[in-house]
């Protein structure tokens, strides 16, 4: 397997399944992430699906089962385009691994967060065409990529509650940043569930099943759950831990990079913060002395209700090691927790601790 | 002015305006709070409103202005009853005051959080009867209690966005725990906005005005905002800081009380956690060694989507000082921030830091 991104600078955690994130600097200052820079999280081989023969089956607790071609989707429903951030639940796992090892899981840095403008149709419209029957509570997504990581091995899947599935922002998308959706990002059609962990935005979608209960797929029932720290992840079964859905408030420093040498004097520190479903980033505090004192960053307005927000702090850096810390507040007044150690969990999800980096600030040129 | 609660053991912060909370132990293990134990937060004198002459005016961006009597409300709309927690945005301010003084604001402990079963009609139904006009974005509440705390002095008021105002859980309530709403809690009719800070649940409601912008009332535009720590609250103007709305995740130890002597041996530590709008409490960790080690408390299911959740930990306490710490996780995997110092703000809102108490555990009887 090769790399799927065109950019040679992707940080590839695994080639098969292909799991890669951009270096943090590639995200800095960019409200939209190009498709070849957008992180790629896969649980099995990247399938090759022929758009001409692709069919989407809609079944379960519906009035009418549907089998839709790509042309049916395009012609039968209103096209919608919206910007949305996707974030892997394992984003910033490296910070948890630094506390205690997490075998078998990729040590994502903060690059497993990216934003694109998605084009497709509203899942709500397709569900309305099928008609929900009484007892419909969840909408399950299925795909052809068989994961050997699952126990037992099975195709990737997941579900969201009907209330989210019928919200207008949830798309069945065939377009990304104005171009056809690339194969590695789920062509011909993927789900995009804005505001929720990336795991629910199922790629290479082939089936939608309306059910009374959440999906029993391994990646819904057993994985993507915050287990208590003392739990043995190999012994974890369906229903254990906190099932992740809406994304929790997070923040990352993008530029300068941790450990990088920077000149002394005027500097701009930049990053992103992301508040997930129903929240916005209201404030970002940045410290250049390890948290002793704080300044408020300039925070960009989100590009609609479903995107990250970039921030920047203009400051002066004195020579020596500079410990940068960044923390975000959301629109409810909630602040991120400080320490990765408090968030450590056996599968390494949800590292929403404060962002930290050490910069080596050079003395002035003689 | 006397006290308004019948219980002599209310902690009265001020008599006029009347501001009082129950001792934490009075809330312990009680899913529903009795009306005379329920905290009382007022900004002006408690008005006496004659239910016979009371009128509710509905105006602004509506198709039809309404003027409703209590009988119109009762007869014209479907009665609804639901349990909901209210929490003052100043709940646990004492923990912030301990970091740095906050002049002019009451040092609420964790008792400014209570739960009742409310009966009334859905605000959504009343708004539907009035008909929302194009551009309707906010629903403002007005009341007759004039506050001298406001700048300039003015009747209490506030607003919520239309999306929340038209959600079925927002009530115009005349009943509390199956009895008529007591005068101190807003008789004859108050708003109940479940999942949001208590400040939006306006008491002694007399007016509903649908607008394009949030209320310009002092308590919406200027107060109930998290200002940056360096801000001068006397200089704060409309729009400054983070305007609070949905409640943020919080947790409190209710029993045993901080500083109290307890016998050594088997003990049950109990408290509440509350996740606010669109979230539930998913886990509560409790430490009896100041945070060095943690155990998971048993957490009750909420009584519907809008209530706190009580928790308990059965443990053994050894003689000596025992530092209890409790922290909650919500259903998105978010964890509370640790330190009150990080949350400190000039008006003292939103102390959602971990709960802490020191118990004096007695040696065994000789």
TrEMBL record, chains A, B:
CDD domains: SO_family_Moco_dimer (cd02110). The keyword Metal-binding applies. It comes from the Bacteria. Its cofactor is Mo-molybdopterin. Residues 266-359 form the Moybdenum cofactor oxidoreductase dimerisation domain. The keyword 4Fe-4S does not apply. Residues 43-219 form the Oxidoreductase molybdopterin-binding domain. This is Sulfite oxidase.
């Amino acid at each position: 397997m090769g790399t799927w991104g065109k950019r040679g600078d992707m940080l590839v955690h695994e080639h098969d399944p292909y799991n890669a994130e951009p270096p943090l600097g590639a995200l800095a200052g960019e409200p939209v992430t190009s498709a070849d820079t957008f992180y790629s999280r896969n649980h099995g081989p990247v399938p090759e699906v022929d758009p001409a023969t692709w069919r989407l089956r809609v079944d379960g607790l519906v009035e009418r089962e549907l089998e839709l071609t790509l042309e049916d989707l395009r012609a039968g429903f209103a096209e919608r385009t919206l910007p949305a951030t996707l974030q892997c639940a394992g984003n910033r796992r490296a910070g948890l691994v630094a506390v205690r090892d997490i075998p078998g899981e990729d040590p994502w840095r903060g690059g497993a967060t990216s934003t694109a403008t998605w084009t497709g149709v509203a899942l709500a419209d397709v569900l309305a065409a099928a008609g929900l029957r009484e007892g419909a509570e969840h909408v399950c997504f299925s795909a052809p990529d068989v994961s050997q990581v699952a126990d037992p091995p099975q195709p990737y899947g997941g579900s969201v509650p009907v209330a989210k599935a019928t919200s207008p922002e949830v798309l069945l998308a065939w377009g990304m940043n104005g171009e056809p959706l690339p194969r590695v990002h789920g062509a011909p059609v993927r789900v995009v569930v804005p505001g929720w962990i990336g795991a629910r935005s199922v790629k290479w979608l082939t089936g939608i099943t309306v059910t009374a209960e959440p999906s029993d797929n391994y990646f819904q029932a057993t994985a993507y759950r915050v287990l208590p720290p003392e739990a043995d992840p190999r012994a974890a079964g369906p229903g254990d831990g906190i099932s992740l859905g809406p994304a929790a408030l997070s923040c990352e420093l993008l530029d300068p990079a941790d450990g990088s040498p920077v000149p002394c004097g005027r500097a701009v520190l930049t990053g992103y913060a992301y508040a997930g479903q129903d929240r916005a980033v209201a404030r970002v505090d940045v410290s250049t002395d390890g948290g002793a004192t704080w300044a408020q960053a300039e925070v960009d307005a989100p590009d609609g209700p479903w995107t990250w927000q970039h921030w920047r702090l203009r400051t002066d850096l004195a020579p020596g090691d500079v410990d940068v810390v960044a923390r975000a507040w959301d629109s409810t007044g909630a602040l991120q927790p400080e320490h990765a150690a408090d968030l450590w969990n056996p599968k390494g999800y949800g590292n929403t601790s404060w962002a930290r980096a050490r910069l080596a600030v050079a003395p002035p040129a003689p």
